[in-house]
Automatic annotation (TrEMBL):
Species for this entry: Rickenella mellea
GO molecular function, one term: single-stranded DNA endodeoxyribonuclease activity
Cell inner membrane is among the record's keywords: no
One GO BP annotation of this record: resolution of meiotic recombination intermediates
Taxonomic superkingdom: Eukaryota
Cellular component terms per the entry's GO annotation: nucleotide-excision repair factor 1 complex
Keyword terms: DNA damage, DNA repair, Hydrolase
Transmembrane segments: none
Record's protein name: Uncharacterized protein
Length: 80
């Protein structure tokens, strides 16, 4: 075991995680990489050309939309 002063950032983080898991009586941990910055940088290299189109709803689509909104409203009212 290294002394706390000789630990790099990732080692210190792992040590902290290990002690926290022990305190919480947890056996397994799931560590996922932080890729958000890589994705953000990749997307910023070339901005997408965005074209917004508006398609009016047909009568059937409007009926379906109204039915869904009514179901959602009823469900939310029941939850209150």
């Amino acid at each position: 075991m290294h002394s706390p002063t000789n630990l790099n950032t990732s080692q210190a983080a792992c040590l902290h995680l290990k002690s926290m898991m022990k305190e919480l009586h947890l056996c397994k941990d799931h560590i996922y990489p932080r890729f958000h910055e890589d994705v953000k940088e990749s997307l910023e290299r070339r901005k997408a050309d965005i074209i917004e189109l508006y398609q009016p709803m047909s009568e059937s689509m409007s009926d379906i939309h109204q039915a869904i909104v009514q179901c959602m409203s009823t469900t939310l009212a029941e939850l209150k």
